[in-house]
Amino acid sequence: MTDAPHKMTARDVSVFYGEKQAVKNVSIDIDMDRVTAFIGPSGCGKSTFLRTLNRMNDTIGNARVEGQITLDGEDIYSSGMDVVQLRARVGMVFQKPNPFPKSIFENVAYGPRIHGLANSKADLEEIVARSLRRAGLWEEVKDRLNDSGTALSGGQQQRLCIARAIAVDPEVILMDEPASALDPIATAKIEELIHELRGRYAIVIVTHNMQQAARVSQRTAFFHLGNLVEYGDTDNIFTAPREERTKDYITGRYG
Amino acid sequence: MNNARATQSTQAQERAPTDWKTVAMQRRIRKRYRAERRFRFFGIAAVVLSAAFLAFLLVTMVAQGWRGFTRTEIMLPIDFPASGMMVERAQLDTAGADLALAGAGLENAVKSAAAAAFGPGGESYISDNAWVSVRKAIKHDASVLDRKTQMRVPASSEVDQAMAGRGTSEILAAVAKLKNAGLVSRHLNLDFLKVSDSTDPVAVGIWGALKGSLLTMFVTFLIAFPVGVLSAIYLEEYAPRNRWTDLIEVSINNLAAVPSIIFGLLGLAVFLGSWSLFGYRVGPLLPRSAALVGGLTLALMIMPVIVIASRNAIKAVPPSIRDAALGIGASPIQVVFHHVLPLAMPGILTGTIIGMARALGETAPLLLIGMRAFIVTPPGGLTDPATVLPVQIFLWSDEVSRGFVEKTSAAIIVLLVFLLAMNGLAIYLRNKFETRW
């Protein structure tokens, strides 16, 4: 454990879709140099909770969030927080690869461009190249940056989406089941990439795959029916869970 | 409950394996193939029927309409020195040439030349406007005034009809004689595309109506496209889902189904009426019969069509693209204008052009706002009196004179070519902007 202040904290967070409560009083800390995994059966609220961390739930009409979430000590739901800047600082990678139907270069350059991060064309090219390198995609696409991003394979598309998120220089990257639509080889590449990105960004990953959580994360949170059942070091969760429900889930008794 | 299930399962066990070769089974298969063949037959019949109607329409139009692009011309011998016309040669090079020639009695000189050449009543063989082409020839080469010469001038409507075998026996005989002498013939004449309405079917043209249509469409597009697309974007991307937006949606759908003549009444009441609101004038006084008012009225009519098409196109953009853009910190307006709108553009443009094509073919609302006037001068601007292609067709089809029939068909050809061009544009734009995934 480090003594550094937590990158993000959530205190008593509840999310409602109309009358239905999808997340119940969740409190959690996210640290800079760790990968945090959210696991749990379908419909347990882990993706919903993830989306509250960069306020993507705002786009859903009847969603309501209670409790407090902070980024570097600042309440992200306060009126002073600019949601556009928040989403640049807390990037997101989605379940299904969703590159823009534009060139590979434009996919990565879009974020820096709208946030004015590049001073010149050369600077922008440099950002794109660096982001693609970090996402482990550079070698595969460096000769065809003008090809359409949608023409890549599924795994390459997902890494392009990660490069796109990295390009705006976020502090936290949220990944919502980033490998669930990919084959095992592409999945392995994504996991390898998560290892490499650790330390540079705080990473939160939602996954259905418990082996994946065990492989990539240092901290694991187990959600069930909207409750955070158990949160702790990944090793402890998988070898010595304190809660009966966690144990049942990770041993495959339900899920 | 348990009992019933048990009985069911024993029954299931007792069922013999399905025999696919029984007579009943064979009959069922034959019946299925018959139904298939019948359906194909009906499908082909429907396609053939509609193709036949279309071919019939096109063939009739072209067969009747091609004569509209030609003109019967008659060879007129004129002896200028004998006509007694007094023209100052110096004036022929100035701007006053038209006036000088008119003042010298050119029109009468041409008429008497016709009477002299074709016998008594011969002046009825040439068009009332024949002297205009003579004037053109004189201005082109003034030396003809010094000699006896021959000139091809437009023939009258009667001669024109006689060429097609219609008319009294006297004129038919006279024209047959002229024809044998090689003095009367038909020629391609694109004046039809260059001049405007006239009372003489030989002299009418479509240019005024075509220009009126272009100006009207311009106004319609300028109003309906931005307003329609922006409404669609607001309703799809920004508006909250509540009773009010439901009401707006129902109203828009209903507006799209309102008969066009009612939009004409609305245009008449709003744009040409007093613009009055509780007795106070709230808008400018607009001219009757003008492309501006016609365009505004048609814009009202096609706006709901554009809104509906645009909303559907926007709805069809995958939500994952919005998520992707929002996820890297694009603001809602950036999401719309950088990502959603470009992807929805092909659908929006297709819907818009279909709406514009509908507006182009619309007659009823324009009759109500006064665009059915007899207009000889092509409109010079949006506020000049104008008419449009379909109204012109309607007006000509109402004429008794036989010569207008082929002009009506010719005008229909022009309108159809215009429509085809617009649909071609729609297809081109859709393919150009379509994103390949």
TrEMBL record, chain B:
Domain of life: Bacteria
Domain ABC transmembrane type-1: 210-426
Signal peptide limits: none
Keywords: Cell membrane, Membrane, Transmembrane, Transmembrane helix, Transport
InterPro entries reported for this sequence: DUF3333 (IPR024573), MetI-like (IPR000515), MetI-like_sf (IPR035906), Phosphate_PstA (IPR005672)
Any one GO biological process: phosphate ion transmembrane transport
GO molecular function, one term: phosphate transmembrane transporter activity
Positions of transmembrane segments: 39-63, 214-235, 255-278, 290-309, 343-361, 408-429
Entry membrane topology: Multi-pass membrane protein
Keyword Protease part of the UniProt annotation: no
Gene Ontology CC, one term: plasma membrane
Keyword Transport: yes
Main location: membrane
Annotated localization: Cell inner membrane; Cell membrane
Entry similarity comment: Belongs to the binding-protein-dependent transport system permease family. CysTW subfamily.
NCBIfam families reported for this sequence: 3a0107s02c
Protein name: Phosphate transport system permease protein PstA
High-level lineage: Bacteria, Pseudomonadati, Pseudomonadota, Alphaproteobacteria, Sphingomonadales
